[in-house]
Every structure is written in C-alpha cells, then in structure tokens.
C-alpha cells in the first residue's frame, strides 16, 4: 500500500506545485513508483511545471466521471520512468470532483504506486479539502512571511479535523516545508526565522528551500528543479527533504549567510 | 535613510513574530469551539419548529465578541400569514 501525501498551504503562490513536482521527482529518481495528482480543477498547472502540457488527453475529472480509465489518464514522465502525472481538468464546474470519486481514484493509485502526491489548490474550500481528505501525510508549504504562516496554521487545523485519518481518531503526519527562504534577509532580522516559523506552527520541519533563480529557470524549462539540475542549492534541499519524507533521519541545516563588516555595521547589504 | 537609522537595526521580523503569536492564539481558541453560532441556530430552530412553522431565513443568530463580554443576538421573525400553530392544524 502506497502512501498518500498532500502538498498544501492555504495561501496561493507559496510553491505548492513547484514543491509537488520537485519532491515527487526526487522520490521517483530513487526507483519508487510515484504519482502526482493535480487537484487544482480549472487552474491546472502541474502539467506545465512537469513539461507535460502537450501530452494531456484525459484528466482527473474524466476518470471520476468514467469517461476515461485511470491508466489512460496517467502520463508517464519522459525523464524518470517511475514518475506519473494525473492532470486536473480545465473545466469551470467546481463540483466536478465528488468525494466518492476522489476516494476511488486515490484507492486505486495507492494500490499501484509507492507514493501519491496530491497537489492542493490554494484556499480552504472544497478543492483543497478534497485534496487532503484521503492523505496519510501532509507537507505544508510555508513562506517565512506573516500571511503565509497564518494560513498554514489554518490548514493545520483543517488537517486535524477534516481528513479521514483525523476523523478515525488517528494522527495525520504533518511536515512544514519552508520555501523561498532568504538567509541574508533572515540574518538581518527582516524575515521570520526558521525557529520563529516552527515555534509558531509547532510542526516538525521537512526542509528549507532557499530562494533561488534555479526554481524559476526549472519551471521555464518544464522540468522539476530536482531533475533539471540536481546540484543547485534548491534542488539539493528538495532532494534532502524527499529523503526525510521517506523516513531518513537527516539533520536540517539552516542556510547561513556570513555577515560582512559593513552588514554588521549597517544591517544591510553593502551594495 | 537618516543617520539615526544606521544604528537602529533590529529588523521587522520580531514585530511579525509577535503579531502572529497574538493573532493565532486568538484564532485557535475560536476554532476549538466548533462554530457555536451554528449549533445554537440549529437547536433554537428545532425548539421553535415544535410550535410554529417558520422558514430557516427568519431566524438570525449572531455573536459579537467584546473584550470582557460577548453578546448573543437572536432575531426570530414570525410572519403572520404563514405562521400556523401546529396544534390548530393537527
């Protein structure tokens, strides 16, 4: 039985889709069978980040409504052969997903794949709740910024109340993934520190992804950052986070920026 | 930036942290009571329905949270035409 991991955040634009692609690809690279499911019906983007936008024929809604088989809708990645994508539909009907339908699809995926990553839409509405509904674990993507941390707290509350696991009295395993972390700004006290975020959310840390040009470059190219250039700092951080998700005990190193003399004197970057 | 600012460099993150801690403490407390207003609304509706037929829309329940005291406001409208005592029709 595979593990179902929801990648969620509440707030939009913090890096859910990027993180789903990067973590999923990093796990699949080790030989595990991985399915990435896009739950953002109407605004799908995981296909674009994965570089599979021109290969979408059927989608999640087709499978739920029975117009396509699951095997027809799954798109195999061209770089990693154990990596698959189930795209969301572009329909504007927001009731296209039913709880029973999603449950059936997740059950089938769970029986075939080692990992099923559910890319949640932003918000706390139906789509986001369906994405988390059948999850065993959750990755909460958070930027070190007040509105993102507040929304993450809200999502943590929902994970503990509205998932099948929580309703059965079990604990859903939650991990915070801090993205777009700028070590220099944190050192200058301009950005919430990792300790601040973890203390406020009181949830264990999965990893810290540094703010990096390589992330944008990877999405321009339609490749998860962990595949396009696995050596850059963001990719390395995602690969380590993926290992922790698989249960490996790796210490998290907070990206550190040495303060120069001028920085120390003026508390700003010496231009 | 004036000369004074050069020496005052604590950054804004501590402010962010403090604001979040206060706000989330409040929001979590409210979350743990599973929507008191809608529970009250349902129960009040059930009590009224025993005696008078009214529409869901005619019952307004709202809670105003104050510093030291909160007010619970219940507004029930019974339209004269549609309100038939159940005892009569039985």
Automatic annotation (TrEMBL), chain A:
GO BP terms in the entry: division septum assembly; negative regulation of cell division
Q: Name one GO cellular component term.
A: cytoplasmic side of plasma membrane
Q: Which InterPro entries does the entry mention?
A: CobQ/CobB/MinD/ParA_Nub-bd_dom (IPR002586), MinD (IPR010223), MinD_FleN (IPR025501), P-loop_NTPase (IPR027417), ParA/MinD_ATPase (IPR050625)
What residue stretches are annotated with the CobQ/CobB/MinD/ParA nucleotide binding domain? 5-225
Positions contributing to ATP binding: 11-18
Q: Name one GO molecular function term.
A: ATP binding
Family annotation (Pfam families): CbiA (PF01656)
Lineage top rank: taxon: Bacteria
* Keyword entries, A-Z: ATP-binding, Cell cycle, Cell division, Nucleotide-binding, Septation
Quaternary structure?
Answer: Interacts with MinC and FtsZ.
Which function does this protein serve? ATPase required for the correct placement of the division site. Cell division inhibitors MinC and MinD act in concert to form an inhibitor capable of blocking formation of the polar Z ring septums. Rapidly oscillates between the poles of the cell to destabilize FtsZ filaments that have formed before they mature into polar Z rings.
Q: Which NCBIfam families match?
A: minD_bact (TIGR01968)
Family to which the UniProt record says this protein belongs? Belongs to the ParA family. MinD subfamily.
Q: What is this protein called?
A: Septum site-determining protein MinD
Species whose genome carries this gene? Mesorhizobium tianshanense
Automatic annotation (TrEMBL), chain B:
Cite the InterPro entries for this sequence.
MinE, MinE_sf
The keyword Cell cycle belongs to this UniProt entry's keyword annotation: yes
Source organism's superkingdom?
Answer: Bacteria
Keyword list, A-Z? Cell cycle, Cell division
Task: List residues traversing the bilayer.
Answer: none
The protein's GO terms of the molecular function aspect are:
identical protein binding
Q: Which GO terms describe its biological process?
A: cell division; regulation of division septum assembly
Return any one Pfam family short name.
MinE
UniProt function note: Prevents the cell division inhibition by proteins MinC and MinD at internal division sites while permitting inhibition at polar sites. This ensures cell division at the proper site by restricting the formation of a division septum at the midpoint of the long axis of the cell.
Family in the record: Belongs to the MinE family.
Write down what this protein is called: Cell division topological specificity factor
In its UniProt entry, the species of origin is given as: Mesorhizobium tianshanense
């Amino acid at each position: 039985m595979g593990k179902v991991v929801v990648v969620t955040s509440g707030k939009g634009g913090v890096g859910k889709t990027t993180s789903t692609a990067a973590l999923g690809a990093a796990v699949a690279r080790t030989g595990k069978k991985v399915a990435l499911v896009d739950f953002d019906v109407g605004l799908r983007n995981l296909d674009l980040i994965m570089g599979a936008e021109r290969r979408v024929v059927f989608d999640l809604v087709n499978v739920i409504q029975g117009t396509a088989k699951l095997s027809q809708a799954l798109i195999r990645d061209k770089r990693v052969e154990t990596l698959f994508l189930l795209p969301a539909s572009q329909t504007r009907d927001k009731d296209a997903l039913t709880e029973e339908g999603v449950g059936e699809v997740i059950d089938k995926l769970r029986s075939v794949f080692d990992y099923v990553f559910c890319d949640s839409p932003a918000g706390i509405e139906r789509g986001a709740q369906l994405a988390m509904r059948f999850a065993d674990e959750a990755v909460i993507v958070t930027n070190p910024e007040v509105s993102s941390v507040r929304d993450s707290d809200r999502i943590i509350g929902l994970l503990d109340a509205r998932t099948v696991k929580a309703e059965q009295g079990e604990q859903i395993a939650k991990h915070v993934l801090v993205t777009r972390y700028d070590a220099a700004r944190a050192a200058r006290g301009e950005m919430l520190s990792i300790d601040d975020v973890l203390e406020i959310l009181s949830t264990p840390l999965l990893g810290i992804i540094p703010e990096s040009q390589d992330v944008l470059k990877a999405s321009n190219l339609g490749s998860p950052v962990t595949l396009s250039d696995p050596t850059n700092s963001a990719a390395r951080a995602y690969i380590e986070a993926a290992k922790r998700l698989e249960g490996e005990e790796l210490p998290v190193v907070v990206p550190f920026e040495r303060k120069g003399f001028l920085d120390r004197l003026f508390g700003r970057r010496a231009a | 930036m004036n000369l004074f600012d050069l020496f005052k460099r604590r950054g804004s993150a501590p402010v962010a942290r403090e604001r979040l801690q206060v706000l989330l403490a409040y929001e979590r407390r409210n979350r743990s009571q599973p929507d008191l207003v809608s529970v009250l609304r349902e129960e009040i509706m059930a009590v009224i329905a025993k005696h008078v037929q009214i529409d869901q829309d005619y019952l307004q329940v709202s809670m105003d949270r104050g510093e030291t005291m909160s007010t619970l406001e219940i507004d029930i409208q019974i339209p004269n035409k549609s309100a038939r005592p159940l005892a009569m029709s039985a």
